[in-house]
């Protein structure tokens, strides 16, 4: 094991972090290409082409990148038939060089979210402790060379943590036990980088509506939703963006 692991225990004060004065932190999409999900994984009996997206947060403390694209392995390539865009090329499209990146967040550590991590040593990689432990000890969970590369520096989180002013990581388990989402507070509304908490904006919308129905005390039965959707919706997000969907979730109504 060659990666450095640091434990971070700084937690958020939930009542106040997102109500402080906010700088308008830009959140930009990064295009890492696409892959073809095989019929057995789509639930439709047909293959499905999905984008692989990261997000860049322009923060005064330095550029923060959420996810780094798809790793490569012959078995993975045969299964998903990816068309990759390298980390260098994807960042260059938005006028950024790899050396400009100061912080990393992986929503989780599957191969299609941490493929570029080995290119970015000596920077803090914020991850939930349970996610890193699972990735390191579960066979076929990820490509080991992506998470154990020389110089990788993990900062382990145990729950919701403000990693930079106005930027918070919060657990959103489901796709993986240690999945996390990034919350960026802006003056015009919170932006949530939800990674693969949901495969699509439509799926997020279903859970947000289920929450609304519960709040309205609608007659049962009602669909179940993940407990953390309540936390995200409490923040009155203006936009929620995803790793495998170009669509963006926006609320039907927001205060002006």
Structure overview:
By secondary structure, the chain is an alpha/beta fold. It is built from 7 helices and 13 strands. Strands 1-8-7-6-4-3-2-5 form an 8-stranded mixed β-sheet. A 5-stranded mixed β-sheet has the order 9-10-11-12-13, covered by helices on one side. Strand 3 (48-59) and strand 4 (62-66) form a beta hairpin. The longest helix has 15 residues, at 201-215. The protein starts with a strand and ends in a 15-residue tail after the last strand.
Indicate the topology.
Blueprint: E1 4-8, E2 27-37, H1 39-42, E3 48-59, E4 62-66, H2 74-80, E5 83-84, H3 87-92, E6 101-105, E7 124-128, H4 129-137, H5 144-147, E8 153-157, E9 161-164, E10 167-171, E11 180-184, E12 190-193, H6 201-215, H7 228-234, E13 237-241
Parallel strand pairs: 1-8, 4-6, 6-7, 7-8, 12-13
Antiparallel strand pairs: 2-3, 2-5, 3-4, 9-10, 10-11, 11-12
Structural class of the secondary structure composition?
Answer: alpha/beta
Unreliably modeled segments: 5-9
Sheet-strand content, in percent, reads 25-35%
**Structural Rg:** 18 Å
CATH fold-type name: Metallo-beta-lactamase, Chain A
Query: What is the top-level CATH class?
Result: Alpha Beta
Total E-strand runs: 13
Oligomer: single chain
Can you tell me the overall shape?
globular
Element pattern in H and E: EEHEEHEHEEHHEEEEEHHE
Mean of all residue-level pLDDT scores: 92
**Fourth-tier CATH superfamily name:** Ribonuclease Z/Hydroxyacylglutathione hydrolase-like
What's the number of helices? 7
Number of domains: 1
Main sheet strand line-up: 1-8-7-6-4-3-2-5
The main β sheet shows up as: 8 strands, mixed
What's the CATH architecture name? 4-Layer Sandwich
Give the CA-CA distance, first to last residue. Answer: 51 Å
